[in-house]
Amino acid sequence: MSREAANVIEADGLSKTYKGGVRALAGLSFRVPAGSVFALLGPNGAGKTTTMRILTTLSRPDQGSARVAGIDVLARPAKVRSVIGSVSQHGGSVGLLTGRENLTMQGRLYGMRGRDLRRRVSGLLDVMGLAEAAGRPARSYSGGMRRRLDIATVLVHRPAVLFLDEPTTGLDPEGRADLWAVLTDLAGTGTTILVTTHYLEEADQYAARVAIVDRGTIVAEGTSSELKAGLHGDSVLLDLDGPGSARDAEKVLAGLPQVLGASGDGSALRARVADGPSALPAVLSGLQAAGVTVRSVTIARPSLDDVYLHHTGRSFHQAERIELS
After folding, report:
1. Would you tell me how many other CB atoms lie within 10 Å of the CB of residue 179?
2. Which of 47, 66, 199, 253 could form a disulfide with 262 if both were Cys (CB 3.0 to 4.6 A apart)?
3. Which of 143, 134, 71, 126 is nearest to 101 (CA)?
4. What pLDDT is attached to residue 244?
């Protein structure tokens, strides 16, 4: 199998610095196999959207190269655009047009006409669960319906690759689950999907492979199971009494030999230990001696948040707060 056939998306050493010296990407590289859902997982500000903009020809890197469906993104951007579908965080459907009109307009932009276009539009409306609402203006749709319409719109011309930037932001849990059901079905029929997200549980549950992005580079990549299996031991989750108490607890645990790493955020503390049951007495005793009250404790197997903590030295939610501040 050729490299192009095996990897539909290839990014090599992408670097990008914006005006003012803001570095968005710092040598980012990854590969996306054909017919899979690949998630770029990272906090807001990690460089995910900049990566998407480069791969969809909306921006150029300062250094590095990229190929989509075997096509050089920098040398042949028009050709790349003909084989991809892309949905930004803000969507692209027109609120004044009906669902059917949005899809029909998109098809015509790609030269589709007549019976083929009508069948394609009707089929997508059925697949996306929008057939009953096809005659209504898109502005009357719920958030989940609007996101499904956005995706349907970019699928009209049958793209080989689909790029989705934070597709479930703002949706309720039911809407997120419905949308992911559609995406996994699309991957099952051969569409390659690259999605950015800051929802750990989504990447864990739905992506075939995950690349964790931090400060413009990939710090870990693999299946969710592989990434979590790479961390030996258990995760200890502590709910502490009082805001800001996690900071004090973090300092206490740093001095315990049983603790491999710890990160506090407000009144929540996450620690990684070699063996949860045997380490727990020392953890609780150390905190009690320091005057830190523990309201509840949970021992669990490592999560993607633990993976992020292991590779970056801070929890995922801690990183999001820092990036947004």
Report:
1. 23
2. 253
3. 134
4. 77
195: which residues sit within 8 A by CB, 6+ positions away? 37, 38, 39, 40, 163, 164, 165, 167, 183, 207
> Residue 323: what pLDDT?
57
Q: Which amino acid is at 177?
A: A
The stretches in the chain having pLDDT less than 50 are 1-5, 325
For residues 183 and 189, the answer to whether their CB atoms sit within 8 Å is: no
Angle separating helix axes 143-155 and 114-127, nearest 10 degrees:
150
Structural domain span for residue 75 = 3-227
Are residues 126 and 160 both part of a single domain? yes
CATH of the domain at 131: 3.40.50.300
What's the structural domain count of the chain? 2
User: Within this chain, do residues 96 and 23 fall inside the same structural domain, yes or no?
Assistant: yes
Distance CA 232, CA 77 (A): 44
Query: How many CB atoms within 10 Å of residue 123?
Result: 15
- How would you list the strands of the sheet with 22-33, edge to edge? 22-33, 7-18, 63-68, 71-72
Q: Is 322 contained in some domain?
A: no
Residue with tokens 């569409």: 191
**Tokens of residue 198, six digits:** 């800051």
pLDDT of residue 41: 94
- Examine the domain organization and report whether 142 and 236 are in the same domain: no
Residues 214 and 195 in one domain: yes
The pLDDT assigned to 3 comes to 46
Quick one: 216 and 274 in the same domain? no
Same domain, yes or no: 214 and 237 = no
Kindly report, residue by residue over 156-174, the tens digit of the pLDDT. Answer: 999 999 999 998 888 888 8
Quote the pLDDT of residue 321. 64
Please check whether residues 138 and 11 belong to one and the same domain: yes
CATH number at residue 241: 3.30.70.920
